[in-house]
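Quick entry, no commentary yet.
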Amino acid sequence: MMNRLTRLLCRLALATWATSMALAADSIQGSECMDCHGDPDLTAVNEAGQTVSLHVDGAKHGASVHGAMPCAACHGDISRQHPDDNLAAKRVDCAACHEAQSSSHGASLHGAAAKDGAEAARCSDCHGSHQVLRDTSPDSTLHHSKISATCGACHPRAAQAVAESVHGLAAIRGERDAALCTDCHFEHARAAVDGASARRLSAQICGQCHAAEPIAASFRPAPDPVKTFYQSYHGLAVQYGSTRAANCASCHGYHRILPSHNPDSSIHPNRLVETCGKCHPGATENFARGRIHGDGGRGKDTGSVVNRWVRSAYIVIILTVVGLMAAHNLAVWLLKAAAARRAPGRSVMRMDRTQRIQHMLLFVSFIVLAITGFALKYPDSWMAWVLGADDAIRRGLHRIFGILLLATAVWHVLYVLTTTEGKRLFRDFWPRRHDVREAADRIRSLAGKTPLRPRRGRFGYVEKIEYWAVVWGVVIMGVTGLMIWLKIDVTRILPRWAVEVATTVHYYEAILACLAVVVWHAYHVVFDPGVYPMNWAWWDGRVADEMCREEDSPARRA
């Protein structure tokens, strides 16, 4: 059975080779093709009954990007029996060499229409057939000076409208940066401008030029048209997904875009009522005079000037009123905090000097690390703005205070291992069984089932949760932070994805730590009515006697 199959495969391979050799021998050489197609008068009648030229200019073909290729490379269906076999040459399949470009063209409007059997632009309609040149060549049909004519061969009315527009006139003047057909519609576009979302139209199509400083600065009469559009009612509605809000083309048009001083322009003062009335029936002249784009605070018309003065006045009023309120309340809070610190009965030493210094270093490094870390993650945020535009500053500060945090952690470990007070501190922070009972008692008392009993020990479950959360957070943030910082060295040992996982852990652990500090720690040291306006132990180490009076009480041990 295997021998038969082997012989069959061998015969099939031999037949295929013989066929290919026969076809190669039967193909016509390029010089033979030009014997006929070099004649300028050579014509034929196509299926539509039209007389078409079959002339090929050998010089032009030789100068094209395909000049070194034989005719049979594209016209492999032509044999030596041509033209006596009366078989017309088949349409060239460009995908045989240009698969990616053919695939993207097939997904475009032209490609989709061609698949449906409609007459639509194919490769040769835009690139040419025997004279395919690079788009940098002035003779190329895709050269920037000829794009309008190439597209206009199939879209004459659109081409004429563009020629009369600000874009077309700029292109005629030789402005290289002027918008062309392919700048808005793209060459092998996967999505059409027609039906595009207003947000995509504004940002990706119009915005690619009008939001680009080097290009737009040469043409636009007003600053930041895309930015100021997004500041307007229409722009805000577009950003949040409205499909009915006006976009760029709604007011300015699309092909025949004219300057506002042209009487035929849709944004000329005499036609604004008509333009606005398309979406706002009954629009009046006063309504149409409203500002469509945000003025960015730079408008010089009466309305903009009045608006700017009102805005400035309100900013001054807000800053003054709210600033005085904040100053008043801050002064009251400081007086109450100072009075609480001077109040008698704060004789219990909760934190010695070393512990207070370590706490202060932890506090400062945590705040700076949070601000610089989120500034690095979100370079457009207010935190990044406060630290300056250069991310090297943010990165440098983040690393310096990261080292400070780790150094403080190492100092604390040595402190609890080598000093008497440090060992006592560690013993008092060690979780014990009565901490679970204390937490359960607190939950029952919050539910109103039992009265709250006094706690036992120097630190309750609240302080212990905070302490061990800090230990956990410093270890996790320290390890992952060093992995991100020393990623080149890390990837000599671990796979690259380990650094990516470390980055994810570092980011979400930072969020967890910041929220825990705000929700848990800030409440127990500031907002708890028993310590408000502040627990001063972080400053002088002392707490009120009543906070510790019931620690180790017989009632609690019972």
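second:
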Amino acid sequence: MRIKSDIQIKVGAILSYVQMGISILVTLLYTPLMINVLGKSEYGLYNTVASTISLLSILNLGFNSSYIKFYSLYKKNDELEKIKKLNGLFLVIFIIIGIIAFVCGFFITFNLDLVFKDGLSVEEYLLAKKLMIILTINLTISFPMSVFSNIISAHERFVVLKSISILKTVATPILSVPLLLLGYGSYGIVLVTLIISLLTDIIYVLYCLIKLKIRFIFKQYDKNIIKELVVFTSFIAINLLVDQINWNVDKIILGRYRGTDAVAIYSVGYTLFTFFQLFTGSMSSLFTPKVHRIVNETSGKEQKILLTDLFTKVARVQFLIAGLIITGLIFFGMNFICDYWAGSDYYESYYVMLLLCIPAIIPMTQNIGIEIQRAQNRHKFRSVAYLIMAVLNVVLSINLCKKYGPIGSAIGTAISLLIGPGLIINIYYQKRCNISIISYWNNIFRLCLGLIIPCIVGFFIYKYSDLSNIWTFIICIFVYSITYCLSMWFIAMNEYEKKLVKTPIYRLFNKNNN
């Protein structure tokens, strides 16, 4: 089983990056079309409504992560009956959450002045209501269906999960583009989103029932487990609330105080930021079961060695990828946004993007630490610390957005990221989570030595090249990328990371030779 698990992780990691590549390509092609067809106002309206609905996703209260925790414990002891009861309990819980989401969504739908104040026309209010209704239905259904994707993840069937995600990534724009061109606008986009989500949910259900032969027991729940579940998830819920505030509330604040045009500008910068999130965050989810195994099966010095090794290995690989993305965005982002993608009206999006990306390097390369905290049941401190920082983020963003617009909102988020994840949580990792955070920073500083040469090259390219010429732009990106890779290879990467690159290349050549 352990060998199978390792294969699932490796193939799942490959598919994760395939999905990311497809997702980025789709977004690069799809977003300009959306902006041109919808216009800045409707594009901003669509993003504000989507962010509002996203806030309701906090209603899952962290139960997704807690399922894997309890499943791992029962699986370790081969308690199959308890696993069936756990499945039943979680399905009931998420059905109830779905009903609550439905009520909340419709309340907001018919009280949109809470979100948009009086900044919309009558037609825009009607459109916003239609979008909210469809997205509320989608969210309502997604809660009970998420139980089945969690079950697949707990069984470490990452290949199935990632393959379906790839299909979803491809199918959504393919079906949305014709509706956009036919004049259905953002209404057509959310309708396609609902249909695709329903189809993927059906696949998850069938896979669990037929392939994994999952069964549910809806009675005789262990009251102690329910109590422990509530305590465990309550602080994860705070984490989810904080994440939603940090990554979605800026759009809602801008929509209320500066209008949908400001939301559109922020959304373009935020879209590029999501590329960074995709590349640095996808690997960590693959190691969630492994983290729980280490915590459940080891202790003391042995556990610290294993957790620190896993923490730094994942962080180093994530930083290698993040470094290329962020430095590339610094040197080429402005020209990309203004000359080739969104248009010159969106130049402020460049600064929004940088303000979100740069301080997020720390939490995004350390996000496996979140699962370590949860596995150790030490996530309470992070929840409280992040909640305080989220409140600070909201206060700063409201005041700064009134004066500086989208850039002001991004500054508020940047400050909260530097103080919370950047400083406070790192101290906590070192003191309480059995992780040597000093080892992490030593590794990151060594990797930063590899950035010196690429940054010098990038500066001269930015200063002396005509990046408004498309061919010059492409050639310079290629030259910069090669420079970055060579510099990291010879200066920063260790043997483990080099092996990750060389092994698939050797296998490919051996297959061709055979």
